[in-house]
Amino acid sequence: MKNTKFIFIIGGVLSGVGKGVTSASIGRMFTNRGYNVSAIKIDPYINVDAGTMNPIEHGEVFVTEDGDETDQDIGNYERFLGTNIYSINYMTTGRVYQTVIAQERSMYYKGKCVEVVPHIPLEIISRIKKASEKVKADIMIIEIGGTVGEYQNILFLEAARMMRLKQPKDVVYGLVSYMPVPRHLGEMKTKPTQYASRTLNSSGLQADFIIARGEDKLDKPRKEKLALMCGLNSEEEIISAPDVQSIYDIPGIFEKQNFAKNLAKKLHFTLRPEDKTKKEWDNFALKTKSATKELKVAIIGKYFGTGNYTLSDSYISVIEAIKHAGWHHGATIKMSWLDSEVYELDQKKLKELKNFDAMIVPGGFGTRGVEGVLLAIRFARENKIPYLGLCYGMQLAAIEFARNVLGIKDANTVEINSKSSNLIIHINESQKMNVNSNRYGGTMRLGGYECDLKEGSLVRKLYGQAQISERHRHRYEFNNDYREQLDKAGMKIVGINKQSNLVEIIELKDHPFFVGVQFHPEFKSRPLSPHPLFMGLVKAGLK
């Protein structure tokens, strides 16, 4: 392919309708044909990255291999495309303005008046081109966060318009828009999407495709109406995207509507035939529907609720990782979100944990609900429930063991009680300086770090190798002063980062599966290659 092809995905009507999964699914269609596909996420926030955002409001912070704190859609791209996405593929309004202002201060513009237009859109285009060049992308998909009509999106839309002017054969626009079915009418309505399309027109852009999201499949009359009213050439350019049992079915649904073929036609290149990876993907998609077993998994934490709703997006990578492993073991995962604060109020409710086959304590921050998590961890340890602790889940497992097995009653983490005389989890000197100086954004231990696995350990068997690399996002570390005590008592230290002599993995002796890891293995799980630790948890749970 001579030039990189660019597909902009823009939202209409409401956010959260599935732009990220749509972008990832489009990418998968081309990946299945051997193209080098990558994706960019644009967030309209002034935040420089997603690291300082509340996970309840914004969803999970996804950490890239090179240590960037990004939007959860970057995780969708990695899972669907089966490749790493790097920091250069993520931009925010804050990040773009920060660069332009820094350039102005260093006389990059050579005395010109630096203006919002064209300099901000030009910086956006420059970032898109650099990201494409870095990975030598045949096809780059750019998702613009939010929806059309939002003030903060205007400059990103302007960048898309300017790119098309320069490269009319290399740029297309897709509008992902919601098709509501009002309960009192019982009829799917096109008018909100018509408004979204016209609003997009007011920014100087005409959608080449409309991806119509809704509960149901789009029928022919509505396809015809949308094409006519939204300025598209034919109903083939209206793609039906109904709700599905598994998001991994979406590439196949798009394929049946000749979406890849029509995209290639618009972008002026000849589409390759599907290769063996298409069959692998289809086989996996089949597994998501053919599971004959069920595994009940309790997820213990606190970032679950907002009002009357449970926001599982706070842990979307954990959810997908356990699902991947479940499907590969022929099992459907039945997850229950358990608020740890409930156990603090009534310890008798811990008995409900006996109804579960496995337990996960994911990452988190702060003091709220922590004593309840510790009670749940003790229950899993004493009742032989397979347990996987991720980041904070590892730290709390170490504290629980120190308190209730070693008898160190005031064992704690500096994050909860800095005055404790037995800080099992403490802060290293570099992080202490960041906290004391109020430097929080982008200062944690982030990205991929190596870990050496102890010979004979369960995790060594699961990984099948002596050294691994996993992604981190934390500020506090295991205190090596307590390493020997825990190890002798049965909480084995089985993973070490040799460069910094930091504990990465703990593993309980004489337990079906009790593993705590300082890193976030969920970030590296893929549909076609589930993560070894989640595979191990599922296998133990099924027993």
> How many individual β-strands?
23
CATH topology (level 3) name of the largest domain:
Rossmann fold
Shape: globular
**Overall mean confidence score, pLDDT:** 93
- Reading side by side through the largest sheet, how are the strands ordered? 13-10-14-15-23-22-21-18-19
Estimated share of beta-strand residues: 15-25%
**Largest sheet data:** 9 strands, mixed
Ends distance: 50 Å
Looking at the overall shape, the CATH architecture of the largest domain is 3-Layer(aba) Sandwich
Instruction: Provide the CATH top-level class of the largest domain.
Output: Alpha Beta
Give the oligomeric state of the chains in this entry, treating copies of one chain as homo and distinct chains as hetero. single chain
Can you tell me the CATH superfamily of the largest domain? Answer: P-loop containing nucleotide triphosphate hydrolases
- Overall tally of domains: 2
